[in-house]
Each structure stands twice: as structure tokens, then as C-alpha cells.
Amino acid sequence: MSFMKEFREFAMRGNVVDMAVGVIIGGAFGKIVSSLVADVVMPVLGILTGGVDFKDLKIVLAEAVGETPAVTLNYGLFIQNVFDFIIIAFAIFMMVKGINKLKKPVEAAPAGPTTEELLTDIRELLKK
């Protein structure tokens, strides 16, 4: 089998295509949640904490010198990204939980005779 043919079969397999669609939708969903956090949640949280803008929270490690910008530790952006993650994780959890609820439970196959019962039946047939 040629390399290209094998690659085409791999790429067109259902799971790979489903995964690609999931990654694309996940990327778009991530942008929506980032906007929700940055434009809705963080301003409200800023008001609740006394007007603090989390994007501006940083520790200056080295002051700016001439053309060289200051070196900062931007922990406010880190806090904002943690909120992004928590909201995305919660939304995905709720979505998976909803999908699992919609799935019908797999019905158990009717229980057949046990091995002992089958052997007993065979023994009875052989006696006859």
C-alpha cells in the first residue's frame, strides 16, 4: 500500500474528521468564552473588588530603560486566563453531561442459560 493511500485512509476515517470538527468548534467556543470573561465577568469582578482592572495587575521586575520596555510579571492576565479555563471546563462538562443524558441506556442482552445448565441438558439428552 502506498504511503499516500494509507494517509488518505487515515485522514478520512470518521474519528479523525470528527476530531477536526471538534477542534475547530472548540477554538471558536474558546474565543466566545474569552470574550465573556474579558468583557463581562472581569469588569463585574473588578467592580466587586473596588474598581481593580485585572489586566493591569502586574509586578515590575525591571524598570524600563530608554528603548527597552519594562520586564513585568502579569499575574492579572494569568487570573483572567484561569477564569477562562474554569468557564470553558464547566461548559464542556455540562455539554457532555447533557449529551450523556440524551443517549439511550444500552439494554442488557437477555441472560441465557449458564454453562452448568447447558451441560446438564446435554447430559440429559445423552441419557435418553
From TrEMBL:
Residues of the signal peptide: none
Any one of the GO CC terms: plasma membrane
Membrane topology type: Multi-pass membrane protein
Subcellular location: Cell inner membrane; Cell membrane
Key words, A-Z: Cell inner membrane, Cell membrane, Ion channel, Ion transport, Membrane, Transmembrane, Transmembrane helix, Transport
InterPro entries: Mechanosensitive_channel_CS (IPR019823), MS_channel (IPR001185), MSC/AndL (IPR037673), MscL_channel (IPR036019)
Lineage: superkingdom: Bacteria
Annotated TM spans: 21-48, 77-96
Chief place where the protein resides: membrane
Pfam families cross-referenced by the UniProt entry: MscL
GO molecular function: mechanosensitive monoatomic ion channel activity
Description of how the protein assembles with itself and partners: Homopentamer.
Stated family: Belongs to the MscL family.
Record function comment: Channel that opens in response to stretch forces in the membrane lipid bilayer. May participate in the regulation of osmotic pressure changes within the cell.
Stated name of the protein: Large-conductance mechanosensitive channel
